[in-house]
Design a protein that fits this description.
9 helices, binds adenosine-5'-diphosphate, alpha/beta, 11 strands, 5-stranded antiparallel beta sheet, binds magnesium ion, 6-stranded mixed beta sheet
Length: 247
């Protein structure tokens, strides 16, 4: 069952066509790895899904609800409802520097006022345990390692109980020795059947954890398939060239 349906997505910055008729589906419980060279439109595609960018044409449908259909956006409250099903983790963590770890986790749910403070605190405690940082609840982001910051960013995204998690190069800003702890949290989420779209340069993660790999180049989805198909039997010269450079 498709949880995200993207069709003919178009986005330009002035004369630069950044996304050219992008079409793909994500099924519930999929872990989709999005790979491709820098500047190919991966971040723009991901940001479009949660309405951090407005697209110029095409459709995005989440759980059967159109956020944008043939270039026409739904009403703001409808868009909010749809983007609320998704959480995003950025390359540079984007934690609030003036808030503690616990406060970073609890801010958005508290502002939403849908749960009691006790419920929110219980969940933040559980999530901090899950990412192995319950002893750092009172710490400020500046006093955490990059790997810890990114684990907090993941927990913060999970606080909103998203149906889908989007990751934009979550380990690219980390020292190599810190990528493992972040990838492990993501692997655990995949094992718990979280639906995830992960833009990544970590080919090992894509091979091991993803069930679909999507190769983007120059604003297009060149090809997509299972990791075996894409890594072992790439169909297009552009994919082969990229993989030869990355593996
Ligand atoms: P990727 O994530 O694959 O590296 P991006 O989606 O960040 O690619 O960028 C795709 C293209 O769009 C690049 O050429 C980039 O320079 C351009 N671009 C991205 N954001 C903007 C912007 N806000 N204004 C103008 N050009 C942009
Ligand atoms: Mg990017």
């Amino acid at each position: 069952m498709a949880i995200i349906e993207v069709s003919n997505l178009k986005k330009s910055y002035g004369k630069l066509d950044v996304l050219k008729q992008i079409t793909f589906d994500v099924n519930k419980n999929d872990v989709v790895a999005v790979i491709g060279p820098s500047g190919s439109g991966k971040s723009t595609m991901l940001r479009s899904l949660i309405h951090l960018e407005e697209i110029d044409g095409g459709s995005i449908c989440v759980s059967g609800n159109h956020m944008v259909k043939d270039g026409v956006y739904a009403k703001p409250h409808e868009i909010k409802q749809i983007t609320g099903k998704m959480g995003m983790v950025f390359q540079h963590f984007n934690l609030f520097p003036h808030l503690t770890v616990k406060e970073n986790l609890e801010l958005a749910p508290k502002m939403l006022k849908k749960e009691t403070s006790a419920e929110i605190q219980q969940r933040s405690q559980e999530l901090l345990e899950k990412i192995g940082l319950s002893n750092r609840a009172a710490a400020y982001p500046a006093n955490l390692s990059g790997g810890q910051k990114q684990r907090v960013a993941i927990a913060r995204a999970l606080m909103m109980n998203p149906e889908i998690l989007l990751f934009d190069e979550p380990t690219s800003a980390l020292d190599p020795e810190l990528t493992g702890e972040v990838l492990q949290v993501m692997k655990d989420l995949a094992q718990e059947q979280m639906t995830m779209i992960v833009v990544t340069h970590e080919m090992g993660f894509a091979k091991e954890v993803a069930n679909k790999v999507m190769f983007m180049d120059n604003g297009e989805v060149v090809e997509s398939g299972s990791p075996e198909q894409l890594f072992m039997k790439p169909q297009f010269e552009r994919t082969k060239t990229f993989l030869n450079r990355s593996l």
